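Per your request, structure below.
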């Protein structure tokens, strides 16, 4: 007797997962959650709006592995309420070094997905203390800032 594909109520979820374009080329899902983001639009490159709208953004972190080593990291941001909202951030070790220098990051490339995950989870658990602020520029580019509120 042959093993039948995994079906649930006549629907093959395993086959559907294989259709996910994010999982081609050996990418594996590392993290997926809806995270409250404060969305801000910038009129110019250096002038973001002061206050933005709070919206749930679906965040996916994917890793392309080469054995045990992380080869590429991709972060995808999308919105259920706006089908045209899609931002992708993809880095390999070389492009990460450039970002690391520019942003003065203390984290290493292989730890980057875990650190991002922790910061995103803090924004979920404590949205008033840890804010994820997403600034969208007219060029189509964007920036994600994590801001820790401090009380004096």
């Amino acid at each position: 007797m042959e093993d039948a594909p995994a079906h649930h109520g006549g629907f093959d979820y395993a086959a559907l997962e294989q259709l996910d374009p994010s999982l081609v080329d050996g990418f594996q899902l590392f993290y997926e959650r809806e995270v409250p983001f404060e969305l801000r639009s910038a009129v110019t490159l250096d002038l973001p709006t002061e206050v933005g709208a709070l919206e749930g953004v679906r965040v996916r972190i994917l890793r392309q592995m080469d054995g045990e080593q992380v080869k590429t990291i991709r972060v995808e941001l999308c919105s259920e309420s706006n089908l045209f909202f899609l931002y992708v951030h993809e880095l390999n070790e070389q492009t990460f070094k450039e970002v690391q220098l520019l942003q003065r990051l203390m984290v290493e490339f292989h730890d980057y997905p875990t650190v991002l995950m922790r910061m995103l989870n803090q924004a979920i658990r404590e949205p008033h203390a840890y804010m994820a602020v997403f600034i969208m520029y007219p060029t189509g580019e964007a920036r994600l800032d994590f801001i820790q509120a401090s009380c004096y």
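The longest strand covers residues 27-44.

Regards,
D.
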